[in-house]
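Hey all, quick one. A colleague (J.T.) asked me to put the uridine-5'-diphosphate job into the tracker so the inputs and the structure tokens live in one place instead of scattered across chat threads. No bug as far as I know, just bookkeeping. Sequence used:
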Amino acid sequence: MGKSCLITGGAGFVGSNLIRHLASRGMRLRVLDNLSAGRAADLGGTDAELLIGDIRDTQLVEQAVQGMETVIHLAAHTNVIESIKTPEVNLEVNVKGTFNLLQASVKYGVKRFVFASTGGAIIGEADPPVHEDMAPHPISPYGAGKLAGEGYCSAFWGSYGLKSICLRFSNVYGPFSYHKGSVIAKFFRRVQVGEPVTVYGDGAQTRDFIYVGDLEKAIVSALQIEDLPFGEAIQLGTGKETSINELVVLMRKVVGEGIFPSLVYQPSRPGEVLRNYVSIARANQYLSFVPATTLEEGLKETWRWFKQES
Ligand code: UDP
């Protein structure tokens, strides 16, 4: 593993967790973040250097990459619905921004480039478990943009020998997720303000929830391991399927019976994927990835963080 690392989007949810992990390994860290979602304060207690700015700014991207041995590219617009409303913004940030990072990485001799991608939005409707050999059929601009990013990672390995690897995240949860619109963060915020929790549809829909601490380990392995399928994608998750109804039961247990608010059922969101979980066979093969945190343990950690934040 190189001794220095640029983390784009490093002040965001995954970044704030990851930086603590990398700092504990003695790495020199630089963060490029426009603070549109993350908070500079969340880098507190680490020695990470913060460059505030946008990945659309090619000059700034060059400045950020210069002198760094490795890059973890997390910065992105992650909201699928927003990408449908303003696809051109998504294209600029998620595709052109990724391209800018890749180009600068080649120019400054970066040794490893890890790209945060997604399985669900790239593959689209498919019978789970979702895996890397499935043909991509994105149904949102967000999915198309991430697929394009993967395409460029592959091309920059093929054309310039940049050792890129695309990690497809399933539904990630954990500390530092206060600003996320994802279901677990949203439900914990509702618990804190004592407002009802909204379940879309009948709650039988499923997801593969991965604890951010397990995800971090996989990212570190992707920086370290020499024998990887460069230019390609590796799916991360737990391989386990959890329905929203099951999630509610666990969250109620973690938070406390009397504290968890009432449930309100609303119609399914348009385009809602009903079942989703992933195969982690490839992650296990190449990254020796074995998620260690049960959903209940991960929820306890996350709730501890939310309580201490309020
Ligand atoms: N969900 C829900 N209530 C909410 C937010 C989400 O029931 O307030 C459900 C949603 O229908 C989906 C799951 O939780 O089945 C995960 O939603 P999220 O937006 O976190 O992730 P994604 O749908 O992109 O996988």
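Adding what we noticed when we looked at it: The chain is about 40% helix and 15% strand. Residues 58 and 247 are 42 Å apart (CA to CA).
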